[in-house]
């Protein structure tokens, strides 16, 4: 365990950050899963609605630094392609 005051503070900050990042990542995964389930069920309207909710969630995770910007862009692109494939 850390002994110096600065190291103890850094450990506290890291733990807080880890908990916040975990919450964001969980929300992110749930929103992506909702889109994929809607696509698998073949319901185009539900898939569009789930995608509309998932895109801001993915963007927010990227802006907070939980995932990389390119990772977010790739996820949005692939989910959009899968939703467009259902409605076609």
Q: What would your notes on this structure say?
A:
The protein contains three helices and no strands. The protein is an all-alpha fold. Helix 1 (5-41) packs antiparallel against helix 2 and helix 2 (44-63) packs antiparallel against helix 3.
Give, in order, the helices and strands: HHH
Secondary-structure content class: mainly alpha
Tell how many strands the DSSP assignment holds: 0
In percent terms, what proportion of residues is strand? under 5%
What sort of overall outline do the alpha carbons produce when their principal axes are compared? elongated
User: Roughly what is the average pLDDT, rounded to an integer?
Assistant: 95
State the helix count: 3
Quick one: biggest sheet? none
Q: How many whole angstroms does the radius of gyration measure? A: 17 Å
Low-confidence stretches: none
Distance between the termini: 57 Å
Share of helix, binned:
over 70%
């Amino acid at each position: 365990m850390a002994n110096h005051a600065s190291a103890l503070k850094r450990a506290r900050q890291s733990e807080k950050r880890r908990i916040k990042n975990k919450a964001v990542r969980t929300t992110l995964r749930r929103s992506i899963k909702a889109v994929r389930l809607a696509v698998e069920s073949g319901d185009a309207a539900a898939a569009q609605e789930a995608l509309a909710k998932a895109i801001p969630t993915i963007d927010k995770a990227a802006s907070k630094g939980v995932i990389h910007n390119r990772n977010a862009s790739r996820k949005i692109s692939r989910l959009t392609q899968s939703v467009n494939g259902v409605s076609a």
